[in-house]
Specification:
- By secondary structure, this protein is α+β, with helices and mostly antiparallel strands.
- Helices cover 32% and strands 22% of the residues.
- The chain has helices spanning 12-22, 40-55, 100-115, 142-148, 166-172, 203-207, 245-261, 298-319, 338-350, 396-414, and strands spanning 59-62, 68-72, 81-87, 124-129, 190-198, 211-217, 219-228, 232-233, 267-269, 273-276, 282-283, 286-295, 322-330, 334-335, 355-360, 375-380.
- The strands form 3 sheets. Strands 1, 2, 3, 4, 5, 6, 14, 15 and 16 form a 9-stranded mixed beta sheet that branches.
- Helix 1 packs antiparallel against helix 3 (100-115) and helix 7 (245-261) packs antiparallel against helix 8.
- The protein is elongated, with a radius of gyration of 23 Å.
- The N and C termini lie close together (7 Å).
Length: 415
Amino acid sequence: MRSANRTQRTNKERLWKRLMELAEVGRQPSGGVTRMSFTPEERAAKDRVAAWMREAGLTVREDAIGNLIGRREGSQPDAPVVLVGSHLDSVPNGGNFDGPLGVLGAVEAVQTLAEEGISHTHPIEVIAFTDEEGARFRFGMIGSRALAGTLTQEHLQACDANGVSIAEAMRAVGFNPENVHQAARTSGSVKAYLELHIEQGRVLEAANLAVGIVTGIAGPLWLRVRITGEAGHAGTTPMAMRKDALAAAAEVLQAVEALAVRQERTVATVGQLHVQPGGVNIIPGVVEFTLDLRDTDEAVRDAVEQEIRAQAAIICKRRGVLLDMTELQRVPPVECSPWLRTEMAAAAGELGLETQSLPSGAGHDGMQLAGLCPIGMLFVRSKNGISHQPEEWSSPEDCAAGVEVLYRTLLRVVG
């Protein structure tokens, strides 16, 4: 294998051009991007990336869950594969970099290998996972779960806001949900998984660093909370006689915030809230909201969850309303591989880049693969820490720096 030097080998202009072109797929009038799983927008994004994969010399296919995969053979085709990539789906009205940078950065890294004439032992597969965000079905990391062999038929019954299940959405675009087990990789078949991603926070920006090395990924716990009271006329029902579901929900949300604030790294977010019947002059009878609870320490996160459940039960009992809390997903936090972190630091050192080690508060597909192979993540600086919004931004220079470190890490891992 050819040794690397200190000059930039990956193509900054090509990477940026592709990022901006892909950002037009699913573009909204507000300026954000919306690409939900199993939709025409997602299909268009995958088709465009597939064309770039072929341009990079990769053999392209999709597996049984719709993961888009571009393969570059190694000198030993049967050796464990090195996976590198991210996702193409988005949250509603999201940004241009969350996910696509990792996929297009991986394509750029592998295309550079081909252009430099570098051979390697292990095969490389660039992968764009199906539905990392979970924005459509309130159940995420579908593609990586399938690859890890943990996606079940029960998971496929999760429904979107229109009552369409994952299984039904798959059938509508030509996939057979009964075949998802075919996407699973066997033990020992994957050497490592690498991912480049924007930080989605302000740590690197505060340190004035372009690139960071991720130490571990916080595990998201998603709950759906439903509070049922009694709807009534807003003008004729005395305050003391009301069973106002929204008032109860407001008190529960205050308790959630207070319990999370007590911990050093716990974060709690209510991202969706629905009030019924929804009239201006009607006391709310039913309120449903989601709760996203995270911490890098699973025991701390789960302890906060139990306190929230207990406080919510007390509040609802006192107010005479019914409480139902349903688990949508529970993902354990994971540690990133010390081996891969060392290789990433060495790769950055070749470029004279200072890096910082930091945890990821956001969930990523890699956490689903932790039981299958070592995982490693690189972060790129985010402007003002903004993500999941149209204003999400990482500069061309920072994106290029991250891809160059990814490329040099890949050189070290593929043998």
